[in-house]
């Protein structure tokens, strides 16, 4: 889709309210919208990074539960380990591992961008594709190693 353009008089003559005149004089749409912006992988990486932060916050609750189980004694800790070793616990652990890898990759992407590098279209797309698609295969590889070395079992 192409970006709609305002009337020749600029944003002042726009009765739809969709355009605004910026301080530099450019007339731009009021807000990004599906009809104005084209979906691309950098948007997905940005949204995924925000979702990762939320998921990591939920993961902290599991860490607090683990610490609480240790503080309440061996029987509570054994109960926690039994829950963590169940299929549901392993599924949650796998999800949190994918969240961790996503957080690391997106954080590295942001850190690299903060240095002024990776801001061209090609490199931004490459880094975003890595940050969006690599966490799940990395988490699978991590859990395959855990099962292969006997650290985790069903």
Secondary structure elements and their pairing?
Layout: E1 19-21, E2 27-29, H1 41-71, H2 74-85, H3 87-114, H4 121-133, H5 135-148
Antiparallel strand pairs: 1-2
Helix pairs in contact: 1-2, 1-3, 1-4, 3-4, 3-5
Please give the alpha-carbon distance between the first and last residues: 51 Å
Radius of gyration: 23 Å
Compute the number of helices.
5
Principal-axes geometry comes out as elongated
Proportion of residues in β-strands: under 5%
Largest beta-sheet characterization: 2 strands, antiparallel
Describe this structure in words.
- The chain has 154 residues and is mainly α.
- Helices cover 64% and strands 4% of the residues.
- The protein is built from 5 helices and 2 strands, in the order E-E-H-H-H-H-H.
- Strands 1-2 form a two-stranded antiparallel ribbon.
- A hairpin with a 5-residue loop joins strand 1 and strand 2.
- Helix 3 packs across helix 5.
- It is elongated and about 70 Å long.
- It starts with 18 loop residues before the first strand and ends in a 6-residue tail after the last helix.
